[in-house]
Write a structure and sequence with these properties.
Length: 355
């Protein structure tokens, strides 16, 4: 069973090891000190999680299962993974830089890549990174090249003993749920920003709104693109069914797909709302620009006649009117004023003074 966001099989997706016991590595003793280890948890049979020290040898116990999270930028971590008994295709995807969302399922494991919001200095940012993972019945190995918000949130939740994890599938579901929660919080923030922009637009204050609106629209488009890929994975997994998977690996595909569908619907509405607001602001700015051009045109037209009169009386030729009249300046000024008033009323009569 192989699922990708674009519906194509990933290279090596058909390469599996049949019913190989992927927990064999965990039965052989300790994993040793794991390079690039960000955190590790031993999940007991009752679903409670016990954090394991990252600077000590990673102990393999016969009860429960392990969650090992790695920093894949550490080349030593990728080298360590080669000693873990996993399918070749799963290992290649886990250690690759492939950021295409995909989900593969074999008789022995599930593996793939899913998107998650990035985290910087403890804060969630509106950029996506990707979680690579391989899950067996007794082991979940996940890795990232950048800090991930939802995965870190899951770590905090299970550290605080707020969730019990009866299976590896339950942990994967919790991660996807927290990806959805992080996206929902970001979508709510964008929606609040759009509310403020709408208020500014109704007050006629929109000069600084275009930059904020452009950022909101770009973020909503990015959210929709990644959500659409993620929901496609679980819809296809739902259609193909999980009956052939081992019980510990049976994801609640239908529940996750429904949650992602509802969230994506909200994000699409935000995207469309941002687009309409952007069009409205563009129209308002165009109207303001047209008004400015119209005012400039009226001013130019009104001052043109007196400019013409002053230009005529400024010619250095004989026979100019009022040249010998002591009140010539006053007559020329009156003529300029009369020409201005005449043009003004003419433009008003033909409707050219509408702003």
């Amino acid at each position: 069973m192989t699922t990708q966001a674009d519906g194509e099989l990933a290279p090596g997706a058909g390469d599996r090891r049949g019913d190989i016991d992927l927990s064999a590595a965990s039965k052989s003793g300790n994993y040793g000190i794991v390079p690039g280890l960000v955190w590790a948890f031993h999940i007991h049979n009752d679903g409670s999680a016990e954090p394991m020290p990252v600077e000590q040898a990673l102990e393999n116990r016969h009860d429960g299962w392990l969650w090992v999270h790695l920093n894949l930028t550490d080349a030593r971590a990728r080298q360590w993974l080669k000693d873990i008994d996993l399918p070749v295709a799963a290992m290649k995807l886990l250690t690759s830089h492939d950021n295409h969302q995909q989900l593969h399922a074999t008789d022995a494991c599930i593996y793939g890549v899913i998107a998650d919001l990035s985290q910087s200095l403890g804060e969630t940012v509106d950029e996506f990174a990707h979680l690579h993972f391989v899950a067996t019945e007794r082991l979940l190995i996940s890795g990232r090249y950048r800090a991930l918000a939802a995965v870190n949130k899951v770590r905090e939740l299970i550290q605080q003993d707020e969730y019990r994890l009866p299976s590896v599938a339950a942990l994967m579901e919790l991660i996807v749920e927290n990806v959805a929660d992080a996206v929902a919080r970001l979508a709510d923030k964008i929606s609040a920003d759009l509310d403020k922009l709408e208020d500014d637009l109704t007050r006629g204050s929109y000069e600084d709104s275009r930059l904020h609106l452009s950022r909101a629209r770009r973020t909503s488009v990015t959210l929709h693109r990644h959500l659409a890929g993620l929901r496609t994975l679980f819809h296809r997994l739902e259609l193909e069914g999980t009956a052939d998977l081992k019980p510990q690996l049976r994801l609640a595909a239908s529940k996750l797909a429904q949650r992602l569908d509802a969230l994506d619907h909200d994000v699409v509405e935000i995207r469309d709302r941002a687009r309409l607001l952007q069009e409205e602001i563009s129209e308002a700015l165009a109207a303001a620009s047209n008004r400015a051009v119209n005012i400039l045109s009226v001013i130019t037209t009104v001052v043109l006649p007196p400019t013409l009169v002053s230009g005529i009386f400024g010619m250095n030729t004989k026979g100019l009117p009022f040249a010998e009249d002591p009140d010539g300046f006053l007559w020329a000024t009156a003529l300029m004023i009369a020409a201005t008033v005449g043009v003004y009323f003419l433009m008003k009569r033909i409707g050219a003074l509408k702003f």
